[in-house]
């Protein structure tokens, strides 16, 4: 197979420069729409981080039969159209697991307390459905089902980071496009190892991640011969 990676990020502070765009919610929404363009009409549920979560985007996705559950941040998210009363922290002390809800149609805004206030916006889960977060030290903490679902799917990212973050290429060039390029290469190698572990070849050789990376570099540089058995 032949793969190509294209990275195009314009440096500079102009109106279309990276510095001017990287913190704008419109850019994050555009990326989300691009990634989900083939999901329309399939009743998928997508989980989003604060920079993507917004009422306007979720309503637009709902029209395409794509449903959402996202973590909301008053600092990072586009909070246009959301009730200000839900964006302010309660002055009265709250117990872990307590939450407030505001609804509009199928959309729910949940403010859940667990050693701090966490806000979730969703049209994929009913706010009256109950869930639970299990902590090693604290035991079970009650929460709406949307919170439980978000935590469960977020764990996929955490597991990936815990397992493979030490294998990311640590080279830090000055140019942003170079940083993105090496980041993409790191992800490609880690994903290649995951695919290798799913293949029949893994049952023959059983390389560790470090051994797999070393052999891959040698093969790319032509430093050793390869055979079908490897």
Describe it.
- 19% of the residues are buried.
- With 230 residues, the chain is an alpha+beta fold.
- 38% of the residues lie in helices and 18% in strands.
- The chain folds into two domains: 36-163, no CATH class; 168-221, no CATH class.
- The longest helix is centred in the last third of the chain and has 23 residues, at 176-198.
- It is built from eight helices and seven strands; from the N terminus they run ααβαβαβββββαααα.
- The chain has a five-stranded mixed β-sheet, with helices on both faces.
| Range of helix content | 25-40%
For the biggest β-sheet, the strand order reads: 1-2-5-4-3
Quote the beta fraction. Answer: 15-25%
By secondary-structure content and strand pairing, the structural class works out as alpha+beta
Number of continuous helical runs:
8
- Report how far apart the termini are: 17 Å
Mean pLDDT: 83
Q: Compute the CA-based radius of gyration.
A: 22 Å
What is the H-and-E element order?
A: HHEHEHEEEEEHHHH
- Tell how many strands the DSSP assignment holds: 7
Question: How many domains?
Answer: 2
Q: Main beta sheet: strand number and arrangement?
A: 5 strands, mixed
Oligomeric grouping of the chains? single chain
Poorly predicted spans? 5-13, 15-21
**Shape label:** elongated
Protein name: PGBD5 protein
GO molecular function: transposase activity
Pfam families: DDE_Tnp_1_7
């Amino acid at each position: 197979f032949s793969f190509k990676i294209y990275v195009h990020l314009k440096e500079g502070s102009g109106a279309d420069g990276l510095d001017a765009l990287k913190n704008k919610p419109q850019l994050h929404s555009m990326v989300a729409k691009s990634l989900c363009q083939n999901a329309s009409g399939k009743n998928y549920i997508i989980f989003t981080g604060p920079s993507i979560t917004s009422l306007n985007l979720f309503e637009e996705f709902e029209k395409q039969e794509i449903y959402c559950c996202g973590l909301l941040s008053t600092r990072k998210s586009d909070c246009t159209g959301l009730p200000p009363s839900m964006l302010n922290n309660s002055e009265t002390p709250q117990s872990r697991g307590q939450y407030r809800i505001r609804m509009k149609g199928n959309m729910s805004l949940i403010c859940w307390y667990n050693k701090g206030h966490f806000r979730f916006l969703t049209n994929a889960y009913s706010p009256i459905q109950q869930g639970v977060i299990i902590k090693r030290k604290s035991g079970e903490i009650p929460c709406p089902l949307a919170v439980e679902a978000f935590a469960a799917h977020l764990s996929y990212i955490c597991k990936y980071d815990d397992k493979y973050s030490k294998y990311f290429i640590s080279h830090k060039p000055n140019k942003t496009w170079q940083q993105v390029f090496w980041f993409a290469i790191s992800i490609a190698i880690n994903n290649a190892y995951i695919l290798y572990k799913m293949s029949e070849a893994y049952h023959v050789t059983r390389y560790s991640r470090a051994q797999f990376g070393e052999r891959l570099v040698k093969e790319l540089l032509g430093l050793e011969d390869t055979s079908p058995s490897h």
